[in-house]
Design brief:
- The structure is a single chain.
- The chain is α/β, with parallel strands linked by helices.
- The protein is 37% helix and 19% strand.
- Helix 3 links the parallel strand 3 and strand 4.
- The longest helix has 19 residues.
- It is globular and about 50 Å long.
- The relative contact order is 0.16.
- The model has no long low-confidence stretch (mean pLDDT 88).
């Protein structure tokens, strides 16, 4: 199962991203996409749901930004597994993102080919994290 979350306050943009993903990966039967329109909703959901990839806008109308969500993922729930891809129309945010260790930064409007490249890399990294065998010998 590949779990993807999209979080952006623009409903049309979320729908477009979701459509792109389903078009780019028609053969992945176990693909699940959840869409959120504000940061508070995704943070509440992260208490019970884990995502492999989160496509996350930076600027929201409320008090919480996409950078705050990334910080919550990395520092509050100590999740280094989830691949965070920030998306914004404003490139000036790029330097503020380093502390949350994102996989990438996409500029709006998102190019479908660039999205494909980034998602391929994210899925590759997720699969590398899953395919780990741990065994203990004696003590």
């Amino acid at each position: 199962m590949i779990n993807i979350a999209i979080c952006d306050d623009n409903i049309e943009f979320c729908n477009k991203l979701e459509t792109y993903i389903y078009e780019l990966y028609p053969n992945i039967n176990n693909l699940s996409i959840d869409v959120f329109y504000d940061c508070s909703s995704i943070i509440r959901n992260l208490e019970t749901q884990k995502y492999d990839i989160i496509l996350l806008d930076i600027k929201f109308s409320g008090n919480i930004s996409g950078i705050d969500v990334g910080d919550y993922i990395r520092n509050n729930i100590c999740n280094d597994y989830t691949q965070i891809v920030y998306i914004s129309a404003n490139e000036r945010y790029a330097y503020e993102l380093f502390d949350t260790r994102p996989l990438n930064f996409l500029v709006k409007p998102v190019d479908k080919n660039k999205l494909h490249d980034v998602l391929d890399k994210a899925m590759e990294l997720c699969n590398k994290n899953i395919n780990v065998i741990v065994f203990k010998n004696s003590k």
